[in-house]
Every structure is written in C-alpha cells, then in structure tokens.
Amino acid sequence: MGEQTGHTDELRQRVERHIEAIGEFTSTPGQGTTRLTYSEQDLQARQYIKRTMTEYGLQVREDGFGNIFGRLEGTIEGAPGVLIGSHFDSVPNGGSYDGPAGVVAGLEVARLFRENGLTPKYPLEAVAMTEEEGGRFIGGLLGSRAMLGVISREEFAQTTDKDGITTVEAMRAIGLDPSLPGKREKESIKAFLELHIEQGPILEEEGIPIGIVQAIVGLTQIQVTVRGSAGHAGTTPMERRADALVAASKIVAQLPELAKEQGNGTVATVGRLNVLPNGANVIPDRVVFTADLRAGREEDVLGILDKAETLARSAAGEGIEVEIERQLYIKPKRMSGHVRELLEKSSGALGIEYRPLNSGAGHDAMIFSDFTEVGMLFIPSRGGLSHCPEEWSDPADIARAVDIFYEAAKKLTEAE
Fold first, then answer.
1. What is the pLDDT of residues 322-358, one digit of tens each?
2. Is the dihedral angle over the CA atoms 43, 28, 267, 85 positive or is it negative?
3. Quick check: helix, strand or coil at residue 200?
4. Is 370:78 a contact under the CB 8 Å cutoff?
5. Could you tell me the pLDDT band of residue 139, with boundaries at 50, 70 and 90?
C-alpha cells in the first residue's frame, strides 16, 4: 500500500481528543450535548474546527450559511473537489458522536494526506456543516440544502426558530457573515464521503466494525397547527369548548397506527409539540407540532404522508381549525455504486471487516446524492443508542473508517 496508513494507536488517540474537545461545547454540561446552530456553543466548536484545519495545513473558509471548509488544493486548476465530512450541530441533550465523528474523519484524512506528502490532482476538502439536525430551525439538513441550492438564499434567510429569530439574525449574533458566497455548483464537487455512527444495533450485535451504506430512507416532515379557542379552565362548560390540545392529541395518538398500517418499515414520530398559551388553568387555543414520517420506498413515504394529512384535516370542525405545512420532503436515496466499490476494496485491502447496511436516519449524504457521487460509512453505536447522553462509539472504529476513506480519497483525488 506504500504509506503506513494502518489503524494506529496515535490516530485513535487524536480522534478521541477531537471528539472529547468538541463535546465540551455544550449548553447542558452533564446532561448530554446541546449545541444548537449559531449558538455560543456553535461558535466555540467552529473556532476549534477552524483552528484544527489551519494546524493541518488547510485553506480555511466559511460560506454564507455557516458551513466550514478546509481545502487541500489540487494540481488541476478549477477541478472539482472531493469533500469528506459531516455536521457539528446536535439535538438537545444528545451525544458527542452524532456528526462530529464524521467531521473528525474528514480532518484526519486531510492530515494523512499532508503527513504522507500526497499531492492531489483534484482538491480534497474537509467539511463541517451546520444545522443538519433541525434542532433549532425546523426541517433539518439546512446547511447542505442551502449550500447545494435545494432551497434559495431567500428561503434560508426567512427561516426562523421557535422564537422568531431568523437564520441571518442568528448568524450575525455570533459574528458570521451571511453575505459571503454560499451556493456551490455541482460542477465544483467530484464526490462526497460521510462517516456517521450507525444509531442502531446491527453492527455492534454482529461484531462488525464498519457498515458500508447502500441506501438512505426517504423522509418528510410536516408541521401541523391546530387552532381552537382559549377559555377559563374552571368556568367554560365542556360542551362549549374548542380545545386545541384535545384535537391535536387525537391526531398524535393515531399516527403510530397509520405507520403500522402502511407497513414496510414505515415509521412516524411526533418529536416537537408546543401548547399555547401554556397556562395550567387556560384552555389551549393553539397547538403546533411536527410529524416526522420515514420509509425505505417512496410510495410508502407518500402513502404515510397522505394518511397523516388526511387524519390531521379530519380534526377540523366545531371551532377547531387545522393548518398543515410541508417542511421537508426527500426521496429515498441510493449511494454511488462506484464509490461503494472503492470503499469495499479499501476495506478489504486493509483487512477491515464490513457489511452492507441501509440507513434509517436522514443524513447530509442524501442531499449530496442528487448532485454528485456519494459514499457513506457507519460505525457501531454502543447499545444502538443515539440522540441521548449515553451515545458512544469507539474511537478505534472511527480511526478504521479514516483509513478506509484515506485509501478511497487517494483514488478519487488521483493523489500522487
């Protein structure tokens, strides 16, 4: 193989230090990682990532959406880049590995290029993306969608959090510049590689350190607003009420049955629910909640979406109004056969056991797959846990993934 790129203890230790360092940037210490987009913790994490990129000899820049790039220039002028990375935001009270594991993988592949004196013909870029989780701004995958023009700069600028703060206002509050260039043309990207924790139990249960992702499920998110009438909890007779929460609860309670009825692994989740005016002795007059709907086949995504919207509309009447807004729709996506083959060959050459897997979670890779060749690796999640403080993956497995990506990136960048 030429250079020594095996799974070394030094690489594992660097990976572990990076993960621990980024994990310190949380607004809920001792209660998991809470690093919402454009927060003070976001700023701290991005400063650390940019410092590391600089230390690794990369050209660092941020775009007008807050995504970070560390570039190792290629010898072909104007050539498209090979991007390796993931996101660095978190869900509330989440873990330290969801997202940062992939960011660290991109950093360490770039470091291996520099350490081994490789010069790529096509640029290599370590990338750290923002707002994948949708923890602050509803919809998720915002950084990659904006970067690739799936949503316009205007749509991005008009997106607000639950407090009505726009993305642009939030960016400026931590010193970011939303006027910087943002959209990347697909011609500027040769391939995208992403490492992620599995967030499920399969790899750990089978004792296999690497999963090579074949496809990612389709998903849609809708926001349902149920409006009724406020009133005094003690003086309004039951037959005179238009209780928004009671109406919303009937919708929420039936969604799991709709998913089971759709079948084929279809899932439905209500993860965010706001009750207004949120007073203990006030009848709720407005309830806003999200429904996250996922399936491996597009016909099932569309099927559960239609059933969920029909169910929501059926709650209207007798003083209750229902409004439905589609926040996100992404078809199931297959990964590039060419890149999968590269990852399989690289794993085999390194003697690292792997198995094919499909992803039940959405990732930035699914956005990139409409624009370029995409490959994705999974590593085991202890207990299959994710989006919780107990989330943990072995840094040794991240190091193995770095070695695999390094071998694949050498071929994709035609490095010498």
1. 999 998 898 999 999 999 999 999 999 999 999 999 9
2. positive
3. coil
4. no
5. confident
Q: What is the pTM of this model?
A: 0.83
Share the mean pLDDT of the chain: 95
| Contact predicate 171/182, CB 8 Å | no
pLDDT at 12 over 80: yes
Query: Cα-flanking dihedrals φ and ψ of residue 138, to 5°?
Result: -55, 140
User: Is-same-fold flag (9-217+332-413; 218-330)?
Assistant: no
User: What is the domain partition of the chain in residue ranges?
Assistant: 9-217+332-413, 218-330
For 51, half-sphere exposure in the C-beta direction (CA atoms, 13 angstrom radius) is 9
CATH 3.30.70.360 assigned to domain 218-330? The reply is: yes
CATH classification for the domain delimited by 9-217+332-413, as one of 1.20.140.10, 3.40.190.10, 3.40.109.10, 3.40.630.10: 3.40.630.10
The structure tokens listed for 360 are 């039940």
Q: Identify which of 191, 194, 195 has the alpha carbon closest to the alpha carbon of residue 372.
A: 191
The dihedral built from the CA positions of residue 208, 209, 212 and 218, taken in this order, carries a sign that is: positive
Write out pLDDT tens, residues 198-226. 999 999 999 999 999 999 999 999 999 99
CA distances from 207 to 210, 317, 360, 392 (A): 9, 54, 20, 15
The pair phi, psi for residue 222, each rounded to 5°, is -120, 150
